[in-house]
Specification:
The structure is a single chain. This protein is globular. The protein has 13 helices and 25 strands. A hairpin with a 2-residue loop joins strand 22 and strand 23. Helix content is about 30%, strand content about 30%. Among the domains are: about 100 residues, Rossmann fold; about 70 residues, Dna Ligase, domain 1, CATH 3.30.1490.20. The strands form six sheets. A five-stranded parallel β-sheet has the order 3-2-1-4-5, sandwiched between helices. The longest helix is centred in the middle third of the chain and has 21 residues. By secondary structure, the protein is α+β, with helices and mostly antiparallel strands. The chain binds adenosine monophosphate and glycine. Glycine binds next to loops. Adenosine monophosphate binds next to strand 7, strand 8 and strand 17.
């Protein structure tokens, strides 16, 4: 019997999840809550019920599987509420979602698991943190330990800059209780890599690795953002590197989850830095990444429903790296003022249904017969192709064909690997 699947969330990641699930022969209907106006093309969108009524909501809608997109409801315990009502859910319990929701917990977890990561120390008091910085000059990263919508990390060049951040996060509480303590972390360097493992509590497999582009402007200039684009596969992620990541990170992390009796049936996102000392973990996230999902899912050669349903039921059959059919490049179009102060209400015009790209919506609204911007990251334009350079060219072409006042987007997503491959082709 074909299934009814509910996706929780409203961004580009959830649009991509609903789009891919909609292609499964085993899925009768995709529903989304709250979803967004563009997702209505692939899912029935419904307002979200209040806490305490999710079980009844899932029962009334005849839901066979719930997939929770964003971290906030996972950390708040949505999975636990649904499971208590007998609903099958892809997403970790609140206790396990602390891997993302509490960076001090996460760091301790990595130490206990023997996973390579930057040295870090937690501080609850401004004075103690400042004294530590006096004793340990040099580049540091200051991190609010709680959830701060991706903004609670500051990469600092020296102790003076780090002190300013300590004062802001811990003293002035600019992130509220998320900054009730901070981690002062050794600053690593190297290219980054995102690895998405599907975990069923005991077994796991992973999607082809992808790379996000966090800074606002080309050549990694400008402020950090939620992510301005992504591509997959990544040339650095050779079979040998993925084997190392499996041996040193994925396997020990999943073992540690079991040893701590944490119920993790969901997506374990490992954010890595490829340092001269080998791959090191910057962070765990307890959900799919955004915008990486928008390139990982369209290039995944398999049935997403079967994969996530198997994991949610603790009976994953897939092992190792999941098959990938093509290369994917996704370019985020962000609104004027993003990330500090995104402007809403600009009219979006141009071709939102281009022939060589798929446009996932993150911050748009349908107003009468026009699309308007309604958030920071507005769209993610994704092209797939057998060649990364062709995927890149098509995504660029599609991005050029979409317009709104103040639109910001990077021209260099995937450029590093496109140029690398073009040089290799000439040799
Ligand atoms: P996080 O949310 O912990 O992944 O941090 C966000 C971004 O900050 C990462 O994607 C990195 O670009 C950067 N970052 C985090 N931790 C470190 C570190 N220890 N060294 C250098 N950069 C870091
Ligand atoms: N792409 C970064 C994130 O999802 O956290």
């Amino acid at each position: 019997m074909a299934a009814r699947v509910l996706v929780v969330g409203s961004g580009g990641r959830e649009h991509a999840l609903a789009w891919k699930l909609n292609q499964s022969r085993r899925v009768a209907k995709v529903l989304a809550t709250p979803g967004n106006d563009a997702m209505a093309a692939v899912a029935k969108c419904l307002p979200s019920p209040p806490t305490g009524q999710w079980g009844a909501f899932a029962r009334d809608e005849g839901i066979d599987l719930v997939i929770v997109g964003p971290e906030a409801p996972l950390v708040a315990g949505l999975t636990d509420e649904l499971r208590a009502a007998g609903v099958i859910v892809f997403g970790p319990s609140a206790a396990a979602a602390r891997l993302e929701g509490d960076k001090a917990f996460s760091k301790q977890f990595m130490h206990d698991a023997g996973v390579p990561t930057a040295q870090a120390q937690e501080f609850h008091e401004v004075d103690a943190a400042l004294a530590y910085l006096d004793d340990h000059p040099g580049p540091r990263v200051v991190k609010a330990t709680g959830l701060a919508a991706g903004k609670g990390v500051s990469v600092c060049d020296d102790a003076d800059q780090a002190k300013v951040e300590v004062q802001r996060m811990l003293g002035d509480r600019v992130f509220g209780d998320a900054g009730a303590s901070v981690l002062l972390e050794e600053r690593l360097s190297g290219p980054e890599l995102s690895v998405f493992a599907v975990v069923d509590g005991t077994n796991y497999c992973w999607f082809a690795a992808s790379r996000d582009h966090k800074r606002l402007r080309d050549d990694d200039a400008g402020p950090n953002t939620g992510g301005m684009g992504a591509y997959t596969p990544v040339a650095d992620a050779t079979e040998a590197l993925m084997q190392t990541i499996d041996d040193t990170v994925l396997a020990p992390s999943v073992t540690q989850l079991r040893e701590r009796d944490l119920d993790y049936r969901g997506l374990l996102y490992v954010g890595l830095m490829l340092t001269p000392r080998g791959p090191m973990v910057l962070e765990y996230n307890c959900r799919f990444g955004d915008p990486e999902t928008q390139v990982v899912l369209p290039t995944f050669n398999g049935d997403l429903f079967t994969l996530l349903d198997d994991a949610a039921r603790g009976r994953l059959r897939a092992r190792g790296q999941l098959p990938q059919s093509e290369c994917g490049v996704g370019i985020v179009l962000a609104s004027a003022g993003y990330p500090e102060n995104p402007r809403r209400g600009d009219i979006v015009s141009g071709d939102l249904d281009p022939s060589h790209a798929t446009v996932f919506h993150a911050g748009t609204q349908r107003v009468q017969d026009e699309w308007k911007t309604s958030g920071g990251r507005v769209l993610c334009v994704v092209s797939t192709d057998a060649s990364l350079s062709q995927a890149h060219a098509h995504a660029m072409e599609a991005a050029r064909g979409i317009h709104f006042a103040g639109s910001q987007w990077r021209r260099d997503i995937a450029r590093h690997d496109v140029e690398l491959q073009s040089r290799q082709g000439q040799e």
